[in-house]
Design brief:
4 copies of one chain form a homotetramer. Chain A has helices at residues 13-28, 45-55, 64-69, 85-94, 109-122, 136-146, 184-187, 189-199, 309-312, 322-337, 347-366, and strands at 3-9, 34-41, 59-61, 75-78, 99-101, 126-128, 153-161, 203-211, 216-218, 226-228, 234-241, 246-252, 261-268, 271-276, 282-287, 296-301, 370-371. Chain A has 375 residues and is of the alpha/beta class. The first copy, chain A, has 2 domains: 3-132, 3-Layer(aba) Sandwich (Rossmann fold); 133-318 and 341-346 and 351-366, Dihydrodipicolinate Reductase, domain 2. Chain A has a 9-stranded mixed beta sheet with strand order 16-15-14-13-7-12-11-8-17. In chain A, strands 3-2-1-4-5-6 form a 6-stranded parallel beta sheet, with helices on both faces. In chain A, strands 9-10 form a two-stranded antiparallel sheet. Chains in contact: A-B, A-C, A-D, B-C, B-D, C-D. The A-B interface holds A 150, 154-155, 157, 159, 166-168, 207-209, 211, 213, 234, 236-238, 240, 246-248, 250, 252, 254-258, 267-272, 286-288, 295-297, 367-369 and B 150, 154-155, 157, 159, 166-168, 207-209, 211, 213, 234, 236-238, 240, 246-248, 250, 252, 254-258, 267-272, 286-288, 295-297, 367-369. β16 of chain A pairs antiparallel with β16 of chain C.
Chain lengths: 375, 375, 375, 375
């Protein structure tokens, strides 16, 4: 079978996750291309070599440019901090190689647009890793809405809250560095925005609020010196969708106790859909018109009737995990690269998501409603 | 024992609820005054007489002024539609009689302020029926926050959503009449605002959004003629509290499937508290600093350790209901009338709540952030 | 309106609960008889007098025989420890007065049968306070089963577990005294047995297991002297119903953390019903034949569509509490006394429940299956 | 790195699951041996060849004896229906090759013992795929119990219920064939028995009940001819553990609506642990001694603090799925084969589990309590 040479740049949380997914996908799915772990690049030869061994890549390099240029690399997979995405992606695009990039695509919408424009000009396929869109229960939510099963969409209430920055003594990381753009609104907010767009549609206008809760943090692990935090720990927006629905979007990484509260509720004129990723194998569905005394939300458990579940396990209730969702993402990417349906979200969609992120921040700074098109 | 002569104006949902509570309170609590159901007023002699029989009132009248003037009536209890609150309350205050009034206090903040001012000038005690503040689990949330058990308050996320207006063919009621002021933001929004103030504190500024989802409705039951709806079916606000915490507040009466989603989440620097009135006997509490591998939200069930539970039933898990909460409210009122701690929320606090309601609407119309003090 | 003179014997947890219910019922329901709190009897004049004041009874006595004989007492209401039930009930029956008695009816089935026989011979109406049968959601479970909405009943899995005896230093009470018959199998087990019979039907045979977990306890509060516990802390049975369904029944008062786990699951050939009293306003219903990908348990919240909810509160989601259920029980009793449908469970049904209790204990002692008819 | 040649016999649900796990394990874990998919055997050359292609095995055969004899096969992995386990396993043992076999090990305890005896005599390592023991939350339950965090174990209440045989028109499969031994008590019951033993300890005695709910079924898909079902659709037992704890165990494959209700509750003298595989990333823990008014079950979400979670994903709340658990199982097996801690459960433990299965069935037939040692 034809091989797909993978060149992975970065080997952190997401680098490992991509690697797991590429390893797992051929065993789970019937694929037209077989991923081949060709090369891994990281900040140094040593780091890259060690990661390559751990993740099963054939070769490694401390210079991502070599990876982009390597003839065995068919796909450039970027899982670095987001300040590096653009340079690597543009090089890959210039080399005519498809790019698979982690989210958020760029520190700001302007750079994201450059990337999307470049890819489209070059006719290069792109993919951005908004994992949760590939959760079968999120896909089910979209299907229910698209089918009109809950009528016209009236409102959306979404949040992505975790607590990994709750501890005020948690030190700086690249996620807190203002050079990377924004804080939680980009890191987690982009996920719930991606879902809002996926399930309900484009956001026309919004008013945002952002807050830096922990004003300064240690510059690094074990350091007593502190640095001022310039990015947001919390973000919120009231939104109006192009289709007339309204709603709210929130993000926090200081939500004590919340580990994966990526949750949303879509209310329609005839029903409601609820998903929460702390129970990512469930979807609650209410529809109007049930018999009196028998009305209620139905709890649907993930099972073979949902997209791509069956390939993992043929029995309902046997649950998918986070890595399985990433495997579904990789499948969609491989199918797209082999000529199937275009992958979504691509750079263009990631740019649209980033615009909403930027709009929330701009709106918060200017303390006013604004149209997303202003960004 | 000394009697407290009750004069009830109105006999709908809330009139019945107050009546249940006055009947039940002396059996549950050791009270300094015994409620005596003296007189019930309603829109006509007939309606009042029938309600008085059903609810155990000694006398009835079609003219609330007679009730206010009646020497046996010690407390004027107002459960009419809110457009009537002011006139009745002012008459009672003029008569020097304490007033117990359903929420929202008035169609707008200006009228609410007149009422509060009048009561304070006259030195008359007042009480407003924001029932859910009397839920022991809401009181527990406040206690946990006040104790600092979750550190400094960082954020509040609250909603009150129900679905009784979801059906687009549901006809006009007084709640939809713009003469009564606002729509759901007043009817349900005032509840979640009352909780936000009770648990976190005053709201300094906000930006609001309101939406009329069903644009017109039948003028009455069984009528085909339709009338334009001018009040809100949905409302949202981003808020900043005076203490620096931020948050969001939402209200909807078109939230299909939600029957009593009066839910809130208070996040602090060291923990989180969650309450949802669809399970009103529960409170979820997370605190930081739990041992690794044993971290989690604790589900606290209502029981005798919570305020006023023991008087209803001495065993935990045996649950209070909606009417029990109203009985707790009535107890607090009777204690206040007998010289105990002042009842809260009084007209002044209800005015402050109404200001937030009005501020949301004004902000939504003007599409800008505003200080609540502007209202 | 005609009065119903209540004579209450006992003023503990259940005495108070009955009193609350009699006070509340006329305000909630339209009743043919008005309860009048005539007399309260307890272990001494002093105790009785104090309780009478607290609970609103006109007179009191230290001698229950006077209460039974009192011409103003129309109903003898027994809430004493169960060793006293028989003597009082037989006296009331002899006086031709209807009896309302707490559960379990007697320390053993033989005495329960005597009581049932005596009542039937005398044509006296009886009622036994298995409260939870009056929970609208339990009634709904029965209705769903009776309607065939889940097909033929296949199995029943029920438990009543609480934790009030978990602490090994919790002292003796009358509930632990072997003179009162059995332990948790009678105290809590009788509740889940009453539900099994109510929802599924009579139990034909069973095999039981009982266990005394805490072998000895302090003789009283603050006492260091210990007494051997002879009754069960835990009980279980496998059962076969007369209609062919099978199942299990469990009871425990040493179930750490469980406050009101009176929970059951009825599986039918076409669906399943689940109720848990820690969330007593909910019922989960699954039916087969739902569309693929939309299958799930439906969570039905208590509301006006369920029996007797509307009289308490007209809005769904606004929850009933434990005392409300007791009020529903009292309503059914008053209706029966006024010539309406006979109250269930009566002494005969309570005897049948007690037979199952005794059968579990006997089976456990003899370590064999037995027919309930052997008891 | 040293390779571990895998020979897989069978390619159904579990064959695929094992294959996924072997593919995934080296990417997730740092392993001393690298699995190499050497050969796959199935009922025919054609079936085997197709499965080998799909699952990434190098070679295939229609004769499992060739697989056992193949020098490149280091591990014989058996995922056939259980009637075939013994013959294949004994051949592998004779060839001195370790065996990894799906559960239940054999149709009955006698055969399981032969297999365990043969393996021990030959000094061959064995492993049986009771997946759920490898769920980190089940391991956590065991750890909590073993640590004494909930005191002495008092009782166990466990169930494994699904609904794949609810439909009375679901046709015969090998699982229903009495030649394979028992019905659900073996298929699902063995899982909950394995957990009971893993968390609490050996079962000394029991009384069982089994029931064939659907008395006859179509002989095959689309067939109108019916065959009598001789195995159980439901099974229950009351048990006594060797350590004195008591409990109940249930299994059903006709539990309408239940997809993966593998749930258990361990009550100790000082707390309770609850796990339910429909939410397999959660564990509820209650401990006594919490402050008054702050008592409750704590919901612990799976995260890096639990065994083996971190290797899959470093962030809590990001959930493992069914296949991940199987990957943890494969890791433990590979470590054992490389000289690490012996794998559990091995054939000996699987025999002990099977004895409990057989004891339930025998007890049900003879309608008596029996010691598991009688089997």
């Amino acid at each position: 079978m034809k091989k797909l040479g993978i060149g992975l740049v970065g080997s952190g949380f997401m680098g490992r996750s991509h690697s797991h997914a590429f390893h797992a996908a051929p065993g789970i799915f019937d694929l037209p291309l077989t991923p081949s772990m060709e090369m891994l690049a990281d900040v140094s030869e040593e780091v890259a070599a060690k990661a390559a061994r751990a993740l099963g890549f054939a070769r490694s390099t401390g210079d991502w440019r070599k990876l982009v240029a390597d003839p065995a690399v068919d796909l450039v997979d970027i899982t670095t901090p987001n300040t590096l995405h653009k340079e690597i992606a543009l090089a890959a695009i210039e080399a005519g190689k498809p790019v698979y990039c982690e989210k958020p695509l760029a520190p700001n919408a302007a750079e994201a647009r450059q990337m999307a424009d470049a890819a489209e000009r070059a006719g290069v396929k792109t993919a951005v890793g908004f994992n949760y869109l590939k959760n079968p229960m999120v896909a089910l939510a979209r299907e229910i809405v698209a089918n009109g099963e809950i009528g016209e969409v009236v409102s959306f209430r979404g949040i992505h809250a975790e607590d990994y920055m709750t501890d005020a003594s948690a030190p700086f990381t690249w996620r807190l560095d203002e050079k990377g753009g924004h804080g939680v609104v980009a890191d987690l907010g982009s996920h719930i925005i991606s879902i809002a767009r996926f399930v309900v549609g484009p956001i026309a206008s919004l008013v945002g609020q952002i807050e830096t809760v922990v004003k300064e943090r240690p510059v690094g692990p074990g350091e007593s010196r502190r640095r001022k935090v310039l990015v947001d720990d919390e973000a919120r927006a009231l939104v109006k969708f192009e289709n007339g629905a309204t709603g709210s979007i929130e993000a926090s990484w200081v939500a004590a106790g919340r580990k994966m509260q990526l949750a949303f509720e879509v209310t329609g004129s005839k029903g409601t859909v609820v998903v929460d990723h702390e129970r990512m194998n469930e979807l609650d569905l209410y529809v109007t018109g049930q018999p009196a005394g028998r009305e209620g939300f139905k709890k649907i458990l993930a099972g073979p009737a949902q997209a791509h579940f069956r390939e993992f396990v043929p029995a309902p209730g046997h649950q998918l995990g986070f890595n399985d969702i990433k495997t579904i993402e990789v499948r969609a990417l491989i199918m797209a690269l082999a000529g199937g349906a275009p992958f979504q979200p691509d750079f263009r969609e990631a740019y649209e998501i980033q615009r909403v992120v930027d709009a929330i921040v701009l709106s918060a700074h200017e303390k006013r409603w604004l149209d997303v098109s202003e960004v």
